[in-house]
Amino acid sequence: MELAYIPSPSRGVIHLGPIPLRGYAFCIIIGVFVAVWLGNKRWVARGGRAGTVADIAVWAVPFGLVGGRLYHVITDYELYFSEGRDWVDAFKIWEGGLGIWGAIALGALGAWIGCRRRGIPLPAYADAVAPGIALAQAIGRWGNWFNQELYGKQTDVPWALHITSSADGRVPGYYHPTFLYESLWCIGVALLVIWADRRFKLGHGRAFALYVAAYCVGRFWVEYMRVDDAHHILGLRLNNWTALVVFLLAVVYIVVSAKKRPGREAVVEPGVSDGEAEGDGEDESKSDVGASAEADGADKTDKTDKAEEADGDVKDEAQSGSKKS
Questions:
Q1: pTM assigned to the model
Q2: pLDDT confidence of residue 302
């Protein structure tokens, strides 16, 4: 008898009348909001305008969703295009199936388009949103819990995940909650990037590269624990090889970038002065008050000058009349 375990939800969707509310979709949406919120705070702290991160996210998020789905469908094509499968299911993103590698790749393309339209360097933007992306992944992984998917090997540890569904080849039982392991790892990655960015003043895309490298380390061992079907190359799952290659590329980028472009960008968003994002309205009000005060002062000076001139004229006339008499 198991004394402790992590229960799985009895269902991953609740119907509000004709509208289905899916746990997987909610986790993705909440993750996006957290990423944009934290990215905005970091962007403003770096000298950018408030709202710029959200504006560029309008490009990055849709591209990322498409890229994540494409990577999943391409690498697990047999789930949608083999005999007995319905290819229409490839479009049912709410049922799960987003590959982070494709999401980051096409999401970066969308971010590049948004940055180019604003005249913003993509590496600076990537550095600002890197910890937020890690937190978004941490939240998004709980969508797999709602769908009872992406678990590890069978285990009897107290934190084992209890799988109750037998759909799509699942075998009810107790398994390693790899979704939870990866979620906790992503939280650690976010904290690591925030600390390293403050400590070493990372710039020119190095904070983002650190996020990628750190995530790949965790993804490698988590992926190794998973038992769901996957393509294997030389005994390793495809995603293990992807994590290894991407990790090496990220480390090389950090080393080369640090030598060629040390330090941070002096300006991350053209046309933004210090404190402009928070103080535009206040500065304008002060400017208006100052201008009004200057105008009042000028009017008073003009009136004083005119009064003095009039008094002088009167005195001159009086002295002239006195002499004549």
A1: 0.81
A2: 52
